[in-house]
Amino acid sequence: MIYRSYAKINLYLDVLERRADGFHDLETIFQSVSLHDELHFESADEGIELVCSNPALDCGNSNLVMRAARAILAHCPEPRGVRIRLEKNVPMAAGLAGGSGNAAATLIALNELWDAGLDLDTLAQIGLDLGSDVPFCLVGGTVAATGRGEELLPIAPLPETWFVLLHPPFPMPTGSVFEHPALHKCGARGDRQYSEAFEGALRGWGRNPLSDLCYNAMESAAFAMRPELGPLKSRLAEAGCTAALMSGSGPTLFGICGSEEQAVQIAEQFPDVDRTIVCDVPVGVERID
Ligand code: C5P
Q: Is 133 known to be catalytic?
C-alpha cells in the first residue's frame, strides 16, 4: 500500500488564550497543498519497522509514524506487523504539519492493512494524542477549526489557488513559538462566537478575497525569534503575490499567486531560498496504489 500525506498551510490563524491543559485555543483555516510525503506499507508477521529517506529524521519509538502504528496495533485483537518506508519531501518542524500528515496516513493505512475496523472519529481521537493537527490531516482539503485545531467546521473548498512556499533553512519548535512573550493573543471572544474575519470565511469565499483574510497571530512571536522572516515575507508581496503569510508556527512563508505561470515567475525571484510551487488539494491523505 502506498499513501501520500499532503502538507498544510494556515490561511488564517488566531491565537485566543492559553488553556488549563497548556494548549492554546485557536481559530484557524487549514488548506492542504500539493507538496507531499510518500509512505509505503508492507505487511509483516510481527514488529513495526520504519525507514526514512531523510537520515535527519529519528525513526525510533518517538517518531509520530511509530506512535501512530503502535496506537492502531493496540486496537488489533491479534499480533500484526508492518514495514514502513517514508519518502520525506515536506520540511520538518516547518509549520506544514509534515509529521502530523505522516501520522494521519499511518492511522488510515494500518487501520485498513490490519483490519482494525476503527471509524474516522476514533482515528481522530487517537490522532489528537499524537498532535493537534492530526485530526485535520486525516480529512484535509479546506477546513476551519477551533479548539486546539481539532474541532473541525465545514467551509467551502478554496477555488483553485497557486502558492509559492519559501522554506527558510531552520526549524521552528512549535512549543517555543507558543511560549514566546511576543506572541499576540487576542484573549477569549466574550460575547462574539468568532472573529469577524473567521466568521466571514465560514460563510464562503464569494464575499471577500482570500488576500483580505490572510492573518497569522504567530508571526508576532516567530518574527521576534527570527528577524529575517519579516523582510522575507515583504519580498513575497513585492514580487507580486496578492498576499503573503507565515504558515502555522513557521518558519515556512507562502505567497498567494494569480496563476501557475505567475507562481513560476515569482519563485524565480527567490534564487537564494529553497522554494516550492504548490496548489490547493482536496484531501490530506490519499492512497495511490
Ligand atoms: O499538538 P502539537 O504536538 O502540535 O503541539 C506542540 C506544542 O505546541 C504543544 O506542546 C503546545 O506547547 C503548543 N500548542 C499550543 N496550542 C495548540 C497547539 C499546540 O499551545 N493549539
A: yes
